[in-house]
Specification:
The chain has 1099 residues and is mainly alpha-helical. It is built from 47 helices and 3 strands. The protein has a 3-stranded antiparallel β-sheet, with no helix packed on it. Helix 11 packs antiparallel against helix 12, helix 28 packs antiparallel against helix 29 and helix 39 runs antiparallel to helix 40. One of its GO terms (molecular function) is RNA polymerase II complex binding. This is RNA polymerase II-associated protein. Keywords: Coiled coil, Repeat, TPR repeat.
Length: 1099
């Protein structure tokens, strides 16, 4: 016999040479070499199934190499026997062996692996290729049994050919619906395709067919339940799998991962989370020990060692994960953990390589992108880091990551070399938008209705003081309100983190904001609190902080007008840091405000000697020279700044433009050479402003300077002050610029300048902007708007103490008064001139203007008709005129060497005033007479109106008396009517009582008469409801015609009643009037207890 299995046990009998039978006990197999010698003997005629059984037994015992050796040896034996058709099961077995080898082989080989080195190991792909070769060999010999289809399906599933694998498994299931291997393969494919419901049904079918099946279908059932959201049921399935198969690793791994995830649940107590973490760690370690080739177990265990700081073991596990990962997700996790280990060890090139590999496989992986961006930042590749995070957060498939958003916002806010100013502004705007998005996400999570609140990550980011400080820096110069909110939040978090001890830098910045807002008291308190906090610090930055804070405190003392305290603070600063030139500059400024210019000048020279290249010091010294009317020195100094220090200093360029413009404008040289020099000065001023704008397009001062040049036509004829070009003079009258054309040009220039000033006003909050806008409105003869602009500049910025603004207000009101012929407007102009004189009491030009306004007010009122002026205003104007005479006389007699007016003109004005005031008595008499006549007419008209009012009041009283009498008469009539009605009611009630006494007798008589008439057909009786005094019960007639006497409604009664009832008279009462007024009254009927025939006879 060729071979048979022994009925008594797991044995195989093999016939050798036809005479000898050798029994192979599968429970006690000999060595593989001995068995191969036996099976390969030419006299041994063992069939293919014997070879497969022996090889399978070695595989079952864990010796996959011996099984492969047996199966491989069978091929030449059957080939030599020319029985290749019998090799089909052998080829399928070899394919399965190769697939089994592949399950324990790495997917890829890391050639630069530092811990898990597998350079000489075959990969899964190599084994799958060999398995495919054996499957093809089996197909070539015509082997088409179920085993071949199952093996091919397993191979296709392993190589991710899901559609082909599904077709293979379905082909088997069509003939054998209970084939467990095909069902398991089909379930895995359904799960991979995320068809969790159908996969769950398939795994449950396997469990029904064989509860002891391996691989355990409970693992698949749990995975499907977990994906469907049934976490507790999934956990129960895995726990049951662990009970049934305690030595299998999948259930241990899944339960360990579930426990580790549960340890991150912040709703649990600390003890519960610790317990979950401990049990999860133990299960993952046990799973990895059971199967050290599992990428998932290695990945989970790597995280544990990474947290412990065991970087060597963590790196080995990460490399194991990378090399054995079957899915892209696990592979990406392996690269990320390898990158994290390398990053922690300081191996930045390796970390960059691993993070890059992770993002190549999954570009939208948040941790991978963040890790790569960190490496790019370490390598100073900021643009590349921004690109990496942008790709993560932008479409397609944008990821929602608070960490990545904050990181990208910080990178965009960070200034980078080689980026233009416009790009920097765009980057800052994008950074602000990103931070706003982060804040909104945190606010939404804070307002969650489920009570969980924000996640741990969002909470840690929301509590980041530096983030809020960075937001404040981004909004600085754009929105001080947002700056304040961010700094307040940062201060709150700082105090919470430091147990009430705030960061002094935040207090200092908040104090600066309060100071900018004009809340000097609050700012001072902030600075003082910051100084107190600095004293508790021991770091090296404490001295620098205290210096800045003390300087700010001195500045707020200045703003509060506490100059003594400010002076003491500056002196303390200079004692500690003599090189602190900012304090010296502020001291010089305080001395300048006290008109101690020489001392201020000395301090500024000291500051320049100490730090001659300090552009801030040089800028203030330029300002000091200009304010001291040392324009020539200021010009030389600012030119030296541009030449020797920084030719691109925007402040120096603007100052140069202003100096050139001012000198050209104030030049009084009317010669041809002088005119040309003025024009060249204006041209150079324009060039300075344009260069400043090229360097800083947002420089409001340069833009304002150009607007002033445009408004005053400085490049043209300066409003007619400069002579026209030589070509314009030729050609007679046609070549000359007419006054109308000059006016149109002036208006056009003013309008263009106004557009520029309006834009400057949006970025520069300074009184000079409104001051210049007022000039433009004045040039356009829009005096009301000019006054509005001047008022804004004076009240908001200068507190009514700026003399030029007050004089411009005086000029505008004077022009408005002259145009409207308004004495109140002229009085307002005089008031502003007097305010200016109060500030500069020795300014003779202002005194001349006051005298001129007072004289003009008299001239204007004398020229007005009597009906447009009042005696009071006329007297007041004459008083002003007399005062003007005194002022003109004193100004004309002034013996000073130089005066800002013409003495001759002042004397002429005095003489003109004398002539004009001679008519004052005549005007006063005329005005008195006119106002007396007007008053007489008004008195007469008032008397007539009073008489008419008295007459109408008398008529009204007579009318009221008549109405009162009518009302009394009507009331008497109603009283009489009510008494009559009461009398009639009593009479009716008495008659009704008499009828009640007669009614029962009459009713009985009628009944007796009716019963005797037998020939008369019976009358139909009707039912009726009768309302009684004691209740509302119903009374019904009986069948024999008898009824209660008081409840009868019979046909006889109807016949006896007359057809028309006599209408009763209605007595009108007071309340009836009210009812009538309220609306139409519905007809109402009230029934008595008894109805009688006498009712019809009531009057």
């Amino acid at each position: 016999m060729d071979g048979a299995s022994h009925p008594s046990g797991r044995t195989i009998d093999i016939e050798l040479g036809g005479q000898e039978i050798i029994t192979i006990d599968l429970d006690t197999l000999d060595t593989v070499d001995e068995l191969l010698d036996l099976l390969s003997d030419p006299q041994c005629k063992a069939k293919a199934w014997v070879w497969t059984v022996v090889a399978t037994e070695f595989w079952r015992r864990g010796s996959l190499e011996a099984a492969e050796k047996v199966a491989t040896a069978a091929i030449p034996v059957f080939t030599a026997q020319e029985n290749t058709t019998a090799l089909g099961p052998i080829y399928s077995l070899l394919a399965n062996i190769k697939i089994a080898h592949a399950s324990k082989a790495p997917k890829v080989i890391l050639n630069d692996a530092r811990q898990d080195i597998m350079r000489d190991t075959l990969t899964k792909g190599d084994y799958y290729k060999e398995a495919a070769t054996f499957l093809n060999s089996g197909a070539s010999v015509g082997y088409n049994e179920h085993l071949a289809f199952l093996t091919r399906g397993i191979h296709q599933l392993a190589t991710r050919a899901m559609a082909d694998a599904m077709a293979s498994f379905n082909g088997v299931l069509e003939e054998k619906p209970t084939n467990l291997i095909a069902l398991m393969g089909k379930g895995r494919i359904q799960y991979a395709q995320r068809n969790y419901t159908e996969a769950l049904k398939t795994f449950r079918r396997v469990l029904e067919l064989n509860p002891r099946c391996l691989p355990d279908p409970r693992i698949g059932i749990g995975l499907c339940l977990w994906a469907l959201g049934h976490r507790e049921k999934a956990k129960a399935a895995w726990q049951r799998s662990l009970v049934v198969n305690p030595d299998e690793w999948p259930a241990q791994l899944l339960l360990g991962l579930e426990a580790l995830n549960a340890s991150k649940n912040e709703t649990q107590s600390e003890a519960e989370r610790t317990k979950s973490y401990t049990s999860g760690t133990k299960m993952v370690e046990r799973a990895f020990k059971t199967n050290q080739k599992s990428a998932a177990a290695a990945n989970a265990l790597c995280e544990l060692f990474l947290r412990k700081g065991s970087y060597d073991r963590a790196l080995k596990l990460a490399e194991r994960t990378i090399q054995f990962a079957d899915t892209l997700t696990v592979l990406t996790e392996g690269y990320i953990r390898a990158g994290r280990v390398s990053h922690a060890e300081g191996s930045l090139p390796y970390a960059t390589k691993y993070y890059s590999s992770a993002t190549e496989g999954q570009p939208k992986h948040v941790i991978g992108a963040i890790g790569l961006a960190q490496m790019q930042m370490q390598n100073d590749e900021m643009a590349a880091a921004i690109h990496t995070l942008d790709r993560l957060l932008q479409a397609p498939n944008p990821q929602t990551s608070v960490e990545a958003t904050v990181m990208l916002a910080s990178l965009r806010a960070y200034p980078r070399p080689g980026v233009s100013s416009s790009d920097v502004a765009q980057e800052r705007a994008k950074a602000r938008d990103l931070f706003d998005r982060v804040v909104k996400v945190i606010e939404v999570e804070d307002a969650r209705a489920n009570g969980h609140g924000p996640s741990r990550v969002s909470r840690s980011i929301g509590n980041d003081v530096d983030m809020h400080a960075e937001i404040a820096r981004l909004w600085q110069g754009e929105n001080l309100d947002r700056v304040g909110r961010s700094l307040k939040e940062a201060l709150r978090l700082s105090e919470a983190a430091g147990q009430g001890q705030a960061d002094p830098r935040l207090l200092n910045n908040l104090g600066v904001l309060k100071q900018f807002d004009g809340r000097f008291g609050e700012a001072r308190e902030m600075y003082e609190a910051a100084l107190t906090c600095v004293t508790t610090l021991t770091s090296g930055d404490a001295e620098g902080m205290s210096t800045s804070i003390l300087y700010n405190l001195a500045r707020v003392y200045e703003d509060e007008g506490r100059d003594d305290l400010a002076k003491d603070a500056y002196e303390k600063l200079l004692l500690r840091h003599p090189e602190y030139v900012d304090a010296k500059v502020r001291q010089a400024h305080m001395l300048t405000s006290l008109n101690r210019h020489n001392e201020a000048h000395d301090l500024l020279k000291q500051a320049l000697a100490a730090q001659g290249s300090n552009l801030n010091v040089r800028a203030y010294y330029t300002y000091f020279l200009i304010q001291a009317n040392m324009s020539k020195v200021a010009k030389e100094f600012v030119y030296a700044t541009l030449k020797d220090h920084d030719k691109h200093d925007v402040y120096s360029l603007c100052a140069s433009g202003w100096i050139m413009y001012h000198q050209s404008r104030e030049s009084r040289d009317t010669s041809t050479k002088g005119t040309d020099e003025r024009k060249r000065g204006f041209q150079r001023s324009t060039e300075f402003y344009e260069k400043a704008l090229q360097l800083d397009p947002c420089c409001a001062f340069a833009a304002q300077g150009l607007a002033i040049v445009t408004a005053e036509d400085a490049l043209g004829t300066l409003g007619g002050a400069l002579a026209p070009a030589p070509g314009a003079a030729a050609g007679g009258a046609s070549g000359a610029v007419s006054a109308a054309e000059e006016m149109q040009k002036r208006l056009k220039n003013a309008r263009e300048a106004l557009d520029v000033f309006a834009k400057v006003r949006e970025s520069l909050s300074d009184g000079s902007v409104y001051f210049n806008m007022g000039h433009c409105y004045y040039a356009c003869d829009e005096f009301d708007r000019a006054i509005e602009s001047y008022e804004t500049a004076s009240t908001r910025f200068y507190k009514g103490q700026n003399v030029p603004v007050l004089l411009c207000l005086c000029r505008s009101w004077y022009a408005k008064a002259t145009k409207d012929q308004s004495f109140p407007a002229m009085s307002t102009a005089l008031r502003y001139a007097q305010m200016a004189l109060h500030i500069q009491s020795n300014d003779k030009a202002v005194m001349y203007n006051i005298a001129m306004i007072q004289q003009k007010s008299v001239e204007m009122l004398f020229g007005l008709p009597t009906n447009k002026r009042t005696l009071k205003d006329l007297k007041r104007a004459i008083e002003h005129g007399n005062n003007a005479q005194k002022l003109f006389a004193s100004l004309a007699a002034d013996k000073a060497a130089a005066v800002p007016y013409s003495r001759d003109l002042a004397d002429q004005r005095r003489r003109y005033g004398d002539i004009m005031l001679r008519k004052s008595e005549e005007h006063l008499a005329t005005q008195k007479q006119v106002e007396a006549d007007i008053q007489a007419k008004m008195d007469s008209a008032r008397q007539k109106r009073q008489e008419e009012r008295d007459r109408l009041e008398a008529l009204e009283r007579e009318k009221m008396e008549a109405l009162k009498k009518d009302a009394e008469k009507l009331a008497e009539e109603r009283r009489v009517a009510r008494e009559q009605a009461l009398e009639w009611t009593r009479e009716v009630r008495m008659e009704s009582d008499e009828e009640k006494e007669r009614k029962p007798k009459k009713a009985r008589k009628q009944k007796a008469d009716g019963s005797g008439d037998e020939a008369e057909p019976p009358k139909k009786k009707r039912r009726g409801k009768l309302k009684r005094g004691g209740g509302g019960g119903e009374q019904e007639d009986g069948a024999d015609g008898e009824a209660e006497p008081a409840a009868i409604f019979s046909d006889e009664d109807d016949a006896e009643r007359p057809k028309k009832r006599v209408t009763k008279k209605r007595v009108i009462r007071d309340d009836d009037d009210d009812e009538a007024a309220a609306g139409p009254r519905k007809k109402q009927f009230k029934s008595k207890e008894m109805l009688s025939d006498t009712d019809d006879e009531m009057p």
